[in-house]
Specification:
The protein is 38% helix and 28% strand. It is α/β, with parallel strands linked by helices.
């Protein structure tokens, strides 16, 4: 009994010390994220040139997370991989592993609004899926019409009434056999999945983006012009590389989109379900399907990535000063 008591008196304080060390809170961090190599290279360049220091890196299920600090802010830098599934998977892994309190995603996009030129930067307030949809057969009895499944008819018929209630509800119309739709999500507080037509970026981060954009120096795209920064409007996401002008025109009509790409709505969905503030910054690399001949997105992805990264890093500076 005495020996056991003495042993426990030694072990318990040691356990308390060990548990205290393990339980020390890790400072909350901003996730700084991109989809693929040119985008993350631009972020690393802008971050390190402004004083970012990365003290640690960890690899989890193949994804490398760089842990560092800039402007008093803890940051975690990583690449999700391209497309919605990779973006959602890698981001959720990061949220489960690290104390992330906000998300800034940066990269390139194809222009949908012809007003935007290569190197311009667009920061949409809302992101929609353009390929969350149903494909239906033509109606053999009525030319130009399609045979809709029963489950789909009610919502499709109600789209005009929905738009009257919510000005951000898409102006749904079909593109041939393609009939766009909402995505179903569920999160804490919901009793069943509910349709969501768009995901809204954090208003506070939108305000910081507006302030930061005004403070950026001129960013030359060519000898003739500087990059333009546009904060607001809509963006669209899909698991397709959109390089068709007629489809792009339809996307503009339905969602009033400024840009299109392959990750942002998924980022918004994951962040919304986890209740984490988020924002996506996109540099325009091309006008989706607007060129004659072969798409040249790869020619301008570096410039577009740098212009987007410059805004993100300026936002971090603003957030660091604020704290």
């Amino acid at each position: 009994m005495i020996m056991l008591k003495k042993t426990s008196n030694v072990i318990l304080p040691l356990l308390f010390v060990c548990l205290s060390l393990v339980a020390q809170p890790v400072q909350a961090a901003i996730a700084v994220v991109a989809a693929y190599q040119p985008e993350i290279a631009a972020l690393k360049h802008e971050l390190t040139s402004k004083g970012a220091v990365f003290s640690k890196q960890e690899i989890h299920k193949g994804v490398t997370y760089y842990i560092g600090k800039i402007h008093k802010q803890e940051i975690i830098l990583f690449v999700t991989g391209m497309s919605v599934v990779n973006a959602a998977m890698s981001l959720q892994m990061a949220i489960d592993r690290y104390p992330i309190d906000s998300i800034l995603y940066s990269g390139i996009a194809g222009g949908v609004n012809p007003a935007w030129k290569t190197g311009d930067v667009v920061v949409p307030e809302r992101w929609y899926y353009h390929d969350e949809s149903a494909y239906f057969n033509p109606d053999p009895k009525h030319k130009g019409q399609y045979v809709l499944a029963d489950y789909f008819v009610k919502e499709w018929q109600a789209r005009d009434a929905m738009r009257a209630k919510d000005p951000n509800y898409p102006a749904y119309t079909n593109y041939g056999m393609i009939f766009p739709d909402a995505v179903l999500i569920i999160k804490d507080g919901m009793h069943k999945p509910e349709p969501v037509h768009y995901f809204t970026a954090d208003p506070g981060l939108i305000a910081i983006a507006r302030k930061a954009a005004k403070q950026l120096p001129a960013m030359p795209v060519s000898p003739e012009r500087n990059a333009q920064y546009h904060i607001g409007g809509n963006g669209v996401t899909g698991s397709v590389f959109l390089d068709n002008r007629e489809y792009r025109k339809w996307v503009r009509k339905v969602w009033h989109a400024e840009v299109t790409e392959m990750e942002s709505a998924a980022v918004g969905q994951v962040a919304t379900i986890n209740n984490i503030p988020w924002l996506v910054i996109r540099g325009v690399s091309d006008l989706a399907g607007g060129q004659e001949g072969k798409n040249v997105e790869n020619v301008y992805d570096g410039i577009a990535s740098l212009d987007a990264a410059a805004l993100l890093v300026k936002m971090l500076e603003e957030m660091g000063v604020k704290n």
